């Protein structure tokens, strides 16, 4: 672009913002003022004097932006003349009024054509009165209460009228009709745009060329668009842009009509003189001259509007104004490419791609989409594409997902339209987005990838057979999946391609044929295809996106449900006979077996029993599962088998009894195998093969125990005896002990479930409780071992069992109180030590290389699981609430890894006992400070304590009324009773301080507490007294009014830590609030904005607002320090005291702002963790 490359946006910013281009054009045709109130002639601006002043020598109606050196600032519009006294409305009673038009536009229900026709009738009766009605309608649409009277219209210039209206503008609210929320103004913008469109369309053949209506209207809008009042500027710019769009449509129609008439004139002129019709030729020449004049008139008006409004407002401070300008520019470029589709106009789109606000970038990208979808425009867009392609490619990582989605769609259009494809390097910016967490962006990237893959298939294969093309498609897709190196994320890839390549991904026959071929695919390719096939089966059977991409609960329509049922039936019909073949072929491959065993979970399993010939396949499947369990010891394979066993044994299926019989026989064989080696193991006479075989059998039994009740095989005593024997002999075989721990724990869990269902005798309950106590002692011993796997497994099982046998689990079952087991003091200390030594410790990361990311993520996930288990013990009353100090004091240091878990724990603890929770927060800080003094003072440690205090203080919130009771309790307990010297308690100021705390506490009644007191009548469970272990002291203080009120926990019993289903992470991104913009005209928007496109994760921080007065002054004496504390306390008093209310009135609440990191990308690829990033979804449900 010649012009685009030579001009910079900085040069354009030197041009005057206050000057009105159109004002200078129309000033010559403005009527002269008369001193006498005599009748004035109608105002008819002269075309030559008014419109041709600034006409460009170029044939295009849109000139280059004005040269800053030549453009002089116009006089200020702030001067005004004396306004006539009173409001004089100039609308005649019999004609339509401005209010009538305004009401019709607001309602959005009236026929806009009728409204425009009524106004045109009044305008034809009196041009001045009709125009005045339209002017007052525009003023009212801006939200201004002022009225332009006939005297003002006759005696004032536009600048003076605008200045007068500015003084009368309603400043009570920042809202105006275009941005006012609510149902009343919901349709206002659409109605206003529709009114302008119909007005121009109705005047296209007559009034557009009367040299009065539209020039006068555009002159007023140009002046208003330079106003410093945002309402004037926004509304007038929108109206001017819509008028311009209407004029462009009229100009295109005139150009087409001119070409047709000129062609007819040339044909008539080319005839011989005797064949020519003189009257006909003269009529055609006259029509051509008239059409040329009309086109020239329209060009002058469009030229003035473009230079007077668009050139200034496309860089306005308000993003809505900039977006409106760019949206209309896209329409002009597409509607009238002969005059607008050139480098002089395209450069505005290129510059706006760098806008700071996402709505403006979004409109810019959409405008480009409208251009690139027209193939005849591609040649004119080559220079633009070459210059701004790099910027467009970088915008696929835009922080606004809507913009990124449209950019990917734009690149797909460029790929379709241009002859030269995007280079592979350029396409590499888009490919990884198929794994993005935002589903719309991933689907757009999937469409781009699918287009690329199908183009490769088309070029390589000349065959029209769909089956061969699908086979080639899968081979290329497999190659892409392997090269992308995002394994275990096939579900995200399938979901991205599901909309555009659903037919290929549902071709089960082609996929299974490729898998069953002996020489079809390589080993790695078979694994990739298997994963893609299983993910496609899940997508078709469940019709839901993978974890992390679900956007709320979406109810499937009847059509989608029907498609889902059809897909499920096809999957079952095809895979029932084929699955045994696949299991047989890959029986020795653990990784592939774990994938194939997931397929029956998505079958319509009732089809096994509905058709007789399919029953043999059921028997074959059951026998193959038993064979797989006997052959494999891999944890993933055994877990997949256990899940399938649980599904097949479900009572909802008619064949469940057959499945129970088969798997019971399998358990008999495994138990017999284990018992055959048990005596040798206990005597220490077992060789390595015996230990391995026993461990393998016990590992298989442990996997099946998670799906099937093992109590009938009575393995509990054998496993307990084996555990004690191995620990006493210090013979720690990791696989054997871990399997024994699992078997014992699962046996105790099933026993608890049977006790709930069968109501056994109290003797049996007491015996079971002893077994639980004995197992807890064994696990406590394992916590101090050096064997990592044994130690970690023991901790997780302890968390599960203590919770399952805790007091909260039998709250509704008084008969089962004998089963309650609380941890001893020594066990509590061991659990806390485990956290400090192995969870809040980075020593294990030292041995890992930076490249070994998978191991790091697995280690972090294990630590998160362990921390979540401990937090559950605290929140559900198994451990005292004060044990949370072991977690809270690491909140700041380990915020990146465990911040979400600790934050949720703090929040839940406040629901249980807000006052005790506040004290625990202070206790955590005290412990950390004491540790710092013991280990030696370090400035860095003190900085960490201060940062921790800041984060914990944020948990109280910014509403001091809600946290008042906790803060008062801290002042009474922590300061007056602990920190304040005894001699100081008799000081008058201290007495006044204490009396204020106690009296305010007695008078203040929290409304939330009242509602909870009322709701407690319907609560089935009363406030329970904490059951403590022998020798442990209760942490609840008695007799204190402040500590007596606590919120009863209604938390339900959570799922078990080690046995919960695992999900993908779901990340929540906070939105950044739109910055408040100034109203002082338009200024330069920084286009090359680096921070706008540095996508990062969002964190919230509290930034105190600037206060008018200082709330406290640091003094040197203790007396003044106590007074300052008393003054600070007055800031949280309630509205009962008027004096306190007046003190608070000068203060402002802290503002919560979003902090945006300048690293990373907003569109993160799915985590490789196997559980939710916010594990609290599992831990606290």
UniProtKB/TrEMBL annotation:
Main location: nucleus
GO biological process: cell division; chromosome segregation; sister chromatid cohesion
Residue intervals of the SCD domain: 310-395
Protein name: Cohesin subunit SA
Compositionally biased spans, kind Acidic residues: 1145-1156
UniProt-annotated stretches for the region Disordered: 1-94, 999-1121, 1139-1181
PANTHER family: COHESIN SUBUNIT SA (PTHR11199:SF10), STROMAL ANTIGEN (PTHR11199)
Locations listed in the record: Nucleus; Chromosome; Chromosome, Centromere
The protein's role, per its UniProt record: Component of cohesin complex, a complex required for the cohesion of sister chromatids after DNA replication. The cohesin complex apparently forms a large proteinaceous ring within which sister chromatids can be trapped. At anaphase, the complex is cleaved and dissociates from chromatin, allowing sister chromatids to segregate.
Gene3D superfamilies: Leucine-rich Repeat Variant
Compositionally biased tracts (Basic and acidic residues): 999-1015
Annotated Gene Ontology cellular component terms: chromatin; chromosome, centromeric region; cohesin complex; nucleus
Coiled coil: 274-301
Biased composition (Polar residues): 78-94, 1029-1060, 1164-1175
Assembly information from the UniProt record: Part of the cohesin complex which is composed of a heterodimer between a SMC1 protein (SMC1A or SMC1B) and SMC3, which are attached via their hinge domain, and RAD21 which link them at their heads, and one STAG protein.
């Amino acid at each position: 672009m010649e012009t685009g490359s030579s001009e910079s946006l900085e040069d354009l910013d030197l041009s005057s913002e206050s000057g009105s281009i159109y004002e200078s054009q129309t000033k010559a045709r403005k009527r002269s003022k008369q001193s006498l109130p005599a009748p004035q002639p109608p105002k008819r601006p002269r075309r030559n004097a008014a419109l041709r002043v600034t006409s460009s020598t170029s044939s295009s109606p849109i000139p280059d932006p004005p040269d800053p050196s030549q453009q002089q600032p116009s006089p200020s519009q702030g001067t005004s003349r004396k306004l006539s006294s009173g409001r004089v409305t100039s609308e005649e009673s019999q004609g339509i009024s401005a209010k009538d038009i305004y009401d019709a536009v607001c309602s959005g229900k009236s026929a806009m054509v009728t409204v425009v026709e009524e106004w045109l009738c009044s305008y034809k009766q009196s041009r001045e009165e009709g125009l005045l009605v339209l002017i007052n309608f525009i003023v009212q649409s801006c939200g201004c209460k002022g009225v332009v009277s006939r005297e003002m219209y006759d005696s004032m210039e536009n600048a003076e009228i605008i200045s007068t209206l500015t003084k009368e503008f309603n400043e009570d609210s920042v809202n105006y009709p275009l941005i006012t929320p609510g149902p009343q103004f919901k349709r206002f913008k659409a109605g206003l745009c529709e009114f302008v469109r119909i007005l121009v369309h109705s005047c296209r053949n007559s009034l557009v060329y009367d040299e009065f209506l539209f020039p006068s209207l555009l002159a007023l809008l140009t002046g208003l668009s330079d106003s410093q009042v945002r309402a004037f500027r926004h509304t007038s710019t929108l109206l001017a842009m819509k008028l311009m769009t209407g004029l462009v449509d009229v100009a295109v129609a005139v150009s087409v009509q001119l070409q047709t008439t000129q062609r007819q004139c040339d044909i008539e002129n080319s005839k011989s003189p005797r064949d020519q019709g003189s009257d006909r030729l003269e009529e055609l020449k006259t029509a051509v001259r008239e059409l040329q004049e009309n086109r020239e008139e329209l060009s002058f008006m469009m030229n003035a509007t473009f230079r007077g409004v668009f050139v200034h407002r496309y860089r306005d401070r308000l993003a809505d104004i900039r977006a409106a300008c760019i949206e209309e520019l896209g329409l002009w470029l597409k509607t009238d490419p002969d005059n607008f589709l050139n480098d002089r106009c395209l450069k505005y789109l290129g510059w706006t791609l760098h806008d700071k606000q996402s709505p403006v970038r979004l409109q810019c990208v959409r405008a480009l989409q409208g251009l690139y979808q027209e193939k005849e425009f591609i040649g004119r867009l080559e220079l633009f594409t070459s210059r701004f392609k790099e910027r467009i490619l970088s915008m696929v990582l835009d922080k606004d997902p809507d913009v990124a989605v449209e950019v990917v769609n734009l690149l797909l259009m460029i790929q379709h339209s241009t002859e030269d494809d995007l280079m592979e390097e350029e396409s590499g910016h888009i490919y990884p987005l198929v794994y993005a967490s935002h589903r719309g962006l991933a689907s757009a990237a999937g469409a781009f990838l699918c287009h690329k893959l199908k183009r490769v298939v088309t070029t390589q294969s000349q065959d029209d057979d769909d089956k061969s093309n699908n086979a080639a498609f899968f081979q290329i897709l497999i190659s892409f999946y392997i090269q992308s190196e995002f394994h275990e994320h096939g579900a995200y890839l399938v979901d991205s391609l599901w909309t555009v390549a659903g037919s290929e991904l549902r071709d089960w026959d082609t996929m299974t044929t490729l898998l069953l071929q002996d020489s079809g695919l390589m080993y790695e390719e078979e694994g990739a295809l298997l994963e893609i096939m299983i993910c496609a089966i899940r997508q078709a059977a469940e019709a839901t996106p993978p974890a992390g991409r679900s956007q709320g609960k979406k109810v499937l329509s009847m059509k989608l449900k029907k498609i889902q049922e059809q897909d499920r039936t096809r999957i079952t019909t095809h895979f029932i006979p084929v699955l045994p073949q696949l299991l047989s072929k890959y029986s020795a491959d653990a990784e592939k077996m774990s994938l194939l065993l997931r397929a029956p979970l998505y079958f319509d399993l009732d089809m096994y029993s509905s058709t007789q010939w399919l029953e043999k396949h059921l028997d074959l499947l059951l026998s193959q599962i038993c064979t797989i369990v006997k052959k494999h010891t891999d944890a993933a394979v055994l877990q997949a088998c256990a899940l399938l066993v649980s599904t097949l044994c479900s009572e909802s299926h008619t064949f469940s009894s057959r499945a129970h019989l088969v798997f019971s026989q399998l358990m008999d064989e495994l138990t017999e195998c284990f018992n055959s080696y048990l005596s040798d193991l206990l005597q220490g006479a077992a060789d390595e093969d015996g230990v391995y075989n026993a461990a393998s059998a016990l590992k298989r039994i442990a996997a099946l125990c998670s799906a099937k009740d093992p109590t009938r095989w009575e393995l509990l005593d054998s496993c307990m005896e084996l555990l004690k024997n191995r620990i006493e002999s210090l013979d720690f075989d990791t696989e054997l002990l871990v399997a024994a721990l699992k078997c014992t724990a699962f046996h105790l869990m099933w026993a608890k479930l049977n006790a709930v269902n069968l109501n056994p005798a109290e003797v049996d309950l007491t015996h079971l409780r002893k077994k639980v106590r004995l197992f807890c002692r064994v696990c406590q011993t394992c916590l101090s071992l050096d064997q990592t796997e044994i130690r970690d497994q023991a901790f997780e099982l302890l968390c599960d069992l203590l919770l399952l046998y805790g007091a909260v689990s039998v709250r509704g079952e008084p008969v089962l109180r004998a089963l309650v087991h609380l941890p001893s003091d020594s066990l509590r200390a061991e659990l806390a030590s485990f956290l400090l030594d192995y969870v809040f410790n980075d020593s294990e990361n030292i041995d890992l290389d930076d490249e070994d990311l998978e191991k790091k993520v697995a280690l972090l996930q294990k630590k998160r699981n362990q921390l979540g288990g401990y937090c559950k013990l605290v929140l559900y009353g198994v451990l005292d609430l004060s044990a949370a100090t072991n977690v809270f004091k690491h909140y700041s240091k380990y915020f990146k890894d465990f911040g979400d878990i600790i934050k949720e724990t703090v929040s839940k603890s406040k629901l249980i006992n807000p006052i005790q929770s506040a004290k625990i927060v202070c206790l955590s800080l005290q412990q950390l400070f004491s540790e710092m003094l013991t280990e030696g003072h370090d400035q860095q440690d003190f900085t960490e304590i201060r940062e921790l205090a800041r984060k914990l203080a944020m948990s109280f919130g910014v509403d001091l009324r809600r946290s008042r009771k906790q803060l008062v309790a801290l002042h009474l307990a922590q300061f007056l009773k602990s920190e304040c010297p005894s001699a100081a308690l008799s000081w008058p100021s201290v007495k006044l301080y204490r009396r204020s705390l106690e009296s305010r506490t007695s008078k203040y009644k929290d409304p939330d507490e009242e509602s909870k007191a009322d709701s407690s009548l319907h609560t089935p469970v009363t406030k329970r007294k904490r059951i403590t272990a022998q020798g442990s002291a209760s942490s609840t203080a008695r007799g204190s009014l402040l500590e007596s009120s606590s919120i009863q926990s209604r938390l339900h019993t959570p799922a078990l830590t080690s046995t919960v289903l695992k999900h993908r992470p779901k990340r929540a991104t906070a939105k950044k609030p739109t910055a408040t913009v100034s109203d002082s005209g338009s200024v330069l928007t920084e286009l090359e904005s680096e921070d706008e496109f540095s996508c990062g994760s969002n964190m919230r921080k509290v930034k105190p607002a600037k206060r008018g007065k200082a709330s406290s002054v640091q003094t040197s004496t203790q007396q003044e320090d106590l007074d300052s504390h008393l003054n600070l306390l007055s800031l949280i008093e309630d509205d009962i005291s008027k004096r306190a209310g007046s003190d608070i009135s000068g203060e402002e609440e802290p503002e919560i702002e979003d902090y945006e990191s300048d690293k990373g990308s907003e569109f993160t690829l799915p985590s490789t963790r196997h559980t939710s990033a916010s594990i609290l979804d599992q831990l606290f449900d």
